[in-house]
Design a protein that fits this description.
With 431 residues, this protein is mainly alpha-helical. Helix content is 80%, strand content 0%. It has helices at residues 11-44, 48-76, 78-95, 102-116, 119-130, 133-164, 167-188, 200-206, 212-216, 224-228, 231-262, 271-296, 301-316, 328-356, 359-393, 397-422. The chain is globular. The relative contact order is 0.16.
């Protein structure tokens, strides 16, 4: 590996900031529905199962979109791929305001998911193109923290818009923000080899750990059949299948949980949700920083990733203790620790794809694994809807949430164990 000193230029970090804002907008648009759930379920007479079907429409469409966008972005590139993705999802987000039925919300959510599914395949591929391996987890953690910032901003912004204008305007205003980002993306982004603003020294640094034979292989096409035949692909699939549904639960049901359990008024800014989603931001950046730090200290790449993933899984484990307390701030602390671990996990599980596979296959594998996570996200809401409707029927919905927390507590550890035995040393693949 070439030992090239870190250059003075930091254009790659500006690209990372663009990815951060795209992900912030992505999750802001996604979070609106969860925050408006108590208002919309009264207006449209939804049961918990009705809402779970709407969430399923989102996740099922997201699953399909991830595979499609992952493959498309590997073919057309990140600049055009991101442009198509954010344009589509911004229009779909604003279209929620025109919906008049439960079925209409299902269609709107499916459309939003289809557009949003391009975000992570494009972002992870951009990181692989713009950063050497020793910086990728940190860069991923920084841009992935945008999902948490979006989730932090939403509990403040959405109740304010709802109180002043109404639920339709909440969708229109948040949905329009994506077009502002799109202008900056089109002005400032090109792949490193074509970016005239990038210094030769920084370009050399970006490519400093790229092996020549791997770079030469970038022109070869890789089929989906080849990718599905790799243990490395299946490690990512398993990691996403077991853990993505837990993040969907935190994202779509936490506002309702605090409303039902602690009677919080969701028409006012929600401090508990801000605290929780702030913990996710710290987790994303902290998890990315830790594995990058360990690599710089001499740890092997796979050991640094696996150690950080294990620590992340252990942070989620204590959430089952929420069933033993009625103190809201103790519950907030447990959930904050869990979402901290979730975000640290996310920063590293995305990075292992670019560790193990060449850049030409990164978006495709991210899409495949994301599809697996979304399939889990389709199945888990069925369980959630059934459990919550049952316990709501016997006037004990808190017990329903406690059961769900037990499932959440074990999911990351199970995923880590399966990934470890499937790819003990996460060996890189060459085609």
């Amino acid at each position: 590996m070439n030992q090239i000193a870190k250059p003075a230029g930091n254009y790659r970090w500006m690209i990372c900031i663009l990815l951060f804002f795209a992900t912030t907008i992505n999750y802001l648009d996604r979070q609106v529905m969860g925050l408006l759930k108590p208002v919309l379920e009264k207006e449209f007479n939804w049961t918990e199962t009705d809402y779970s079907y709407i969430v399923m429409a989102f996740t099922a469409s997201y699953a399909v979109g991830l595979v499609v966008f992952g493959r498309i972005i590997d073919r057309i590139g990140t600049r055009l791929g991101y442009t198509i993705s954010i344009t589509f999802w911004s229009i779909a987000a604003m279209a929620h305001a025109a919906v008049k039925s439960t079925f209409g919300f299902g269609v709107a959510r499916a459309s939003l998911a289809l557009g949003e599914s391009g975000n992570f395949p494009a972002a992870i591929k951009t990181v692989a193109e713009w950063f050497p391996k020793k910086e990728r987890a940190l860069a991923t953690g920084i841009f992935d923290s945008g999902s948490n910032i979006g989730a932090c901003v939403a509990p403040i912004l959405i109740p304010w818009i709802l109180g002043l204008y109404g639920w339709q305007e909440a969708f229109i205003i948040t949905g329009s923000i994506g077009f502002l980002w799109l202008i900056a993306w089109r002005i400032f982004y090109q792949v490193p080899a074509k970016q005239k603003r990038l210094s030769p020294e920084e370009l050399a640094y970006i490519n400093s750990d790229e092996e020549p034979e791997v770079a030469a292989d970038q022109q070869k096409k890789v089929s989906w059949l080849q990718l599905f035949g790799l243990k490395q692909t299946w490690a990512f699939i398993i990691g996403k299948f077991f853990t993505d549904p837990i993040w969907y639960f935190f994202l779509f049901w936490l506002p309702s949980y605090f409303s039902a359990t602690f009677h919080l008024d969701l028409k006012k800014p929600s401090l508990p949700l801000v605290v929780i989603y702030t913990a996710t931001t710290i987790g994303a950046i902290g998890g990315g920083w830790l594995s990058s730090y360990l690599i710089k200290k001499g740890w092997l790449v796979y050991r640094s990733r696996k150690f950080t993933l294990l620590l992340s899984a252990l942070c989620v484990l204590p959430i089952f203790l929420a069933r033993y307390t009625t103190d809201m701030w103790v519950v907030i602390g447990l959930i904050s620790l869990a979402v901290f671990g979730n975000s640290a996990w996310s920063a590293n599980i995305y990075t292992i794809v670019s560790d193990m596979l060449p850049k030409k296959a990164v978006s495709s594998v991210i899409g495949i694994g994301g599809m697996a996570g979304a399939i889990g996200g389709v199945i888990f809401p069925l369980f959630i809807g059934f459990i919550l409707d049952y316990y709501k029927g016997i006037n004990n919905i808190v017990a329903g949430y406690n059961i769900i927390f037990v499932v959440c507590s074990l999911s990351f550890l199970v995923a880590w164990i399966l990934m470890h035995f499937l790819t003990p040393k996460m060996k890189p693949i060459r085609f």
